[in-house]
């Protein structure tokens, strides 16, 4: 089991969500976050360094069984990219998921996802 965390631009949320549904991945969590990557550098204004502004982003978290990891990643990459790709399109992080427990039934492991 893996936890896939994708940070994408706000305007791509509907496109990514619809693409994931088409790929039979329907259980996702979405959060609004702020951050910045390479799209803004530290500026110097009147001799002082100014930190870059935080940019609104979307974080999508998906717990998947090992069979769906590549499908989910490929779907997010193809649907979250602007054209041929642009700075700020986002990132995907894949982390091992040790345990998943469905609270309602106490079911555990991959079948709880």
Report on this model:
The chain is of the alpha+beta class. The chain has a single domain (2-112), classed as Alpha-Beta Plaits (2-Layer Sandwich), CATH 3.30.70.120. The protein has helices at 13-22, 69-80, and strands at 2-9, 29-35, 43-45, 48-50, 55-64, 90-96, 101-102, 107-108. It has a 4-stranded antiparallel β-sheet, covered by helices on one side. β3 (43-45) and β4 (48-50) form a beta hairpin. α1 packs antiparallel against α2 (69-80). The longest helix has 12 residues, at 69-80. The N and C termini lie close together (9 Å). 13% of the residues are buried. The model has no long low-confidence stretch (mean pLDDT 90).
Question: SSE string, helix = H, strand = E?
Answer: EHEEEEHEEE
**What is the total domain count?**
1
Structural class: alpha+beta
CATH topology: Alpha-Beta Plaits
Gyration radius from CA atoms, angstroms = 17 Å
Q: Low-confidence stretches at least 5 residues in length (pLDDT < 50)?
A: none
Average pLDDT, all residues? 90
Shape: elongated
Main beta sheet strand tally, sense and closure: 4 strands, antiparallel
Strand order of the largest sheet: 2-5-1-6
Any idea of the CATH class? Answer: Alpha Beta
The first-to-last residue Cα distance is 9 Å
């Amino acid at each position: 089991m893996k936890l896939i965390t994708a940070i994408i631009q706000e305007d791509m949320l509907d496109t990514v969500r619809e693409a994931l549904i088409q790929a039979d991945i329907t259980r996702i969590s979405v959060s609004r976050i702020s951050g910045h990557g390479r799209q803004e550098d530290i500026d110097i204004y009147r001799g002082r360094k100014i930190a870059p502004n935080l940019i609104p982003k979307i974080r999508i978290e998906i717990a998947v069984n090992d069979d769906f990891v590549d499908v989910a990643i490929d779907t997010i990459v193809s649907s979250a990219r602007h054209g041929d790709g642009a700075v700020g399109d986002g990132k995907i992080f894949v982390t091992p998921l040790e345990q998943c427990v469905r609270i309602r039934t106490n079911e555990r492991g991959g079948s709880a996802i």
